[in-house]
Amino acid sequence: MTARTAGPVLIVGSGLLGASIGHALRALDVDVALEDSSPSTLDLAIDYGAGRRAESDEKPALVVVAVPPDQLAAVIGAALVRFPDALVTDVGSVKVSPLAELVENGAPIERYLGSHPLAGRERGGAISARADIFLGRPWVITPHAQTTSAQIHAIEALVLDVGAAPVQLSPEEHDHSVALISHVPQLVASLMAARLVDAPSAAVAIAGQGVRDVTRVAASSPELWVQILTANAAQVGPVLSAIRDDLATLEAAIVAHGAPGARRTIAELLRSGNTGVARLPGKHGGDARFAQLVVLIDDRPGQIAKLLTEVGELGVNLEDLRLEHSPGAQIGIVELSIVPEARDRLEEELTTRGWRIAG
Ligand SMILES: NC(=O)c1ccc[n+]([C@@H]2O[C@H](COP(=O)([O-])OP(=O)(O)OC[C@H]3O[C@@H](n4cnc5c(N)ncnc54)[C@H](O)[C@@H]3O)[C@@H](O)[C@H]2O)c1
Ligand SMILES: O=C(O)C(=O)C[C@]1(C(=O)O)C=C[C@@H](O)C=C1
């Protein structure tokens, strides 16, 4: 594939996000220069192939700032001054406060266009970077009053090159949205995971997929998240209040579950959850949800490859794949996500071929 992005691209901050963008652009042969305030992070990102060391006379066409939230405005502002011919973007998780800080500092924001990939990992650092983290994910571009359509096209080119899907929102709409779909979910995951700290070992040992699904992002960096949450506090607060109200209602109904109406209250909250989760778009951003097929495999080398080869031979496109090990059993659980029309046929054909289907 030929890159749409015109280089050189300078990435400032070569941690998880910066190095991941570097890897994805290098795969398309874009010239990527890297900087980081940590010399060892920079060396690591270069060693892993995310780009080359930036020269002192670098002349980037595009600068991507991927530093922690409390550094964003300062680093974006410095890049706007250092590279007067470059378009500058960032990948920060909050968009209103850095823009306000730039305006307050009199920065030349006519060459700054913020953006934010809704993609990442619960672990930071150049060592966790991967070219594929953006595939199929939304990447929000947040134009302001001075943004031109050529600048939007330039950032869209970057987004498409790394395999993400560009979406345009104002900085305010962005921050309002991410409070609900990213920032409070992080807190809910952390609150649930915090309950496990003093849990008996016997309880933790039998953890299934449910608690893992709900708590995955609880492994994220507290330093990064304190910065994100406080930078978006005005939007996060009201979502937390709504959850607190629901929790109070739920707790009262659970405690007095024999009282008239209590079971209905519990059911209605659960049903709202069904309605809410059904609204989450599928992998490609549309409304279609995929069907799941769970296959049990022997926990020995080559089994997953064999299963995937056979799914391919049957002409079924795999939309997603999840793996799980059953504690204490020599069995692996593979959850295949596929288009609903293919599910029954795949189940039948795999059963005929000797695979064990668990649901
Ligand atoms: N982690 C995620 O899942 C995720 C997803 C989307 C967006 N973001 C945003 O991306 C940004 C980077 O997050 P990350 O997860 O890559 O963090 P990270 O810690 O992995 O990387 C940040 C890098 O910036 C460097 N840095 C700090 N201050 C600097 C400065 N003044 N100049 C140059 N380099 C500097 C650090 O040394 C570090 O290597 C954050 O603003 C975050 O909100 C993170
Ligand atoms: O860990 C992940 O899977 C994420 O994608 C993290 C996630 C998110 O909430 O979606 C978290 C914060 C970032 O600003 C963007 C992405």
Explain what you see.
One of its GO terms (molecular function) is prephenate dehydrogenase (NAD+) activity. It holds the Pfam family PDH_N. Helix content is 45%, strand content 15%. It has 359 residues and is of the alpha/beta class. The protein folds into three domains: 9-169, NAD(P)-binding Rossmann-like Domain (Rossmann fold), CATH 3.40.50; 176-255, Orthogonal Bundle (6-phosphogluconate dehydrogenase C-terminal fold); 291-357, Alpha-Beta Plaits (2-Layer Sandwich). Helix 2 links the parallel strand 2 (32-35) and strand 3. The longest helix has 24 residues, at 171-194. The two termini are 39 Å apart. The relative contact order is 0.08. Bound molecules: nicotinamide-adenine-dinucleotide (NAD) and prephenic acid.
Concise overview:
The protein is an alpha/beta fold and 359 residues long. The protein is built from 13 helices and 12 strands.
What's the number of helices? 13
Mean pLDDT: 93
- Return the CATH topology of the largest domain: Rossmann fold
Uncertain segments of ≥5 residues (pLDDT<50)? 283-287
Strand order of the largest sheet: 3-2-1-4-5
What is the level-2 CATH architecture name of the largest domain?
A: 3-Layer(aba) Sandwich
Largest sheet: 5 strands, parallel
For the record, what is the CATH homologous superfamily label of the largest domain? NAD(P)-binding Rossmann-like Domain
- What form results from the Cα inertia axes? globular
Q: Please trace the helix and strand order, writing H or E for each element.
A: EHEHEEHEHEEHEHHHHHHEHEEHE
The proportion of residues forming helix, as a percent range, comes to 40-55%
User: Any idea of the CATH class of the largest domain?
Assistant: Alpha Beta
Distinct small molecules bound, one entry per kind? nicotinamide-adenine-dinucleotide, prephenic acid
Strand content: 15-25%
Number of E-state strands: 12
Rg from alpha-carbon coordinates = 23 Å
Structural class: alpha/beta
Number of domains in the coordinates?
3
Question: What distance separates the N and C termini?
Answer: 39 Å
EC number: 1.3.1.12
Domain ACT: 292-359
Pathway: Amino-acid biosynthesis; L-tyrosine biosynthesis; (4-hydroxyphenyl)pyruvate from prephenate (NAD(+) route): step 1/1
GO molecular function: NAD+ binding; prephenate dehydrogenase (NAD+) activity; prephenate dehydrogenase (NADP+) activity
